[in-house]
Write a structure and sequence with these properties.
This protein is an alpha+beta fold. The protein contains two helices and ten strands, in the order E-H-E-H-E-E-E-E-E-E-E-E. The protein has one domain: Jelly Rolls (Sandwich). A six-stranded antiparallel β-sheet has the order 1-8-5-10-3-2. The longest helix has 18 residues, at 24-41. Bound molecules: fe (ii) ion. The site of fe (ii) ion has 4 residues, from loops.
Length: 202
């Protein structure tokens, strides 16, 4: 006789991978050199629809990865994105991941980012090269945000709330499926919060 198997099944969860990159101090030293050169030579490509005046190279014709200082980061992103894709059981052996875009974001005091997702990509992510005290959290929004009720909870968690925060930390990488909605809380203080964001397709 087969015993009843009682289970709580998690269908369609929002999958987020958080990784602390080993030797990130060394990686960041090299990245910092590239960042300084880029911010001096590339104009701010801030989209008109963004409400804060942060510095970004999003949508600029030259991808950040063309700069030699970002070669080690490119490898780290590829390694971690493949780990993430494997966890999702994506067929990366036949359809390898490839970059569609990679850009720099420098947040100053009060800078935030409205809710958005990344179109035309499969996996997106963010790497934090500077995350001083007061850096705005990344907020991951539930896909059920617009239809969820707010029942009382014993303990808020990713199964019963609409938004989950992720605190930036230097050397931390966050990966998620590109359709996942996210936003950035305002940064407090004048120290810069620097992130490198990327999109990959297959
Ligand atoms: Fe984003």
């Amino acid at each position: 006789m087969v015993a009843n198997k009682n289970e709580t099944l998690l269908f369609f969860p929002t999958v987020v991978r958080e990784v602390q990159i080993a030797d990130s101090e060394k990686l960041n030293e090299q990245i910092d050199v590239g960042i300084e050169r880029i911010r001096k030579s590339e104009p701010n490509s801030l989209p008109e629809t963004w409400s804060c005046d942060l510095y970004t190279t999003i949508g600029s014709p030259t991808t950040l990865l063309q700069h030699k200082e970002f070669e080690p980061l490119r490898e780290v992103i590829m390694r971690e994105a493949n780990e993430f894709a494997n966890a999702l059981e994506l067929e990366v052996a036949r359809f390898p991941l490839k970059f569609t875009e990679c850009w720099l974001n420098i947040y100053g005091e009060g800078h935030a980012q409205e809710v958005h997702h990344h179109s035309n990509a499969v996996i997106s992510g963010i790497y934090y090269s500077k995350a001083p005290e007061g850096s705005g959290d990344l907020l991951i929004h539930s896909p059920y945000m617009d239809i969820m009720l707010d029942p009382p909870t014993r303990k808020p968690n990713g199964l019963n709330v609409k938004v989950m925060p992720v605190t930036p930390k230097e050397g931390k990488m966050i990966l998620f499926q590109s359709f996942v909605k996210h936003s950035v809380k305002p940064t407090r203080g004048t120290a810069e919060r620097i992130s490198i964001a990327f999109n990959l397709t297959m």
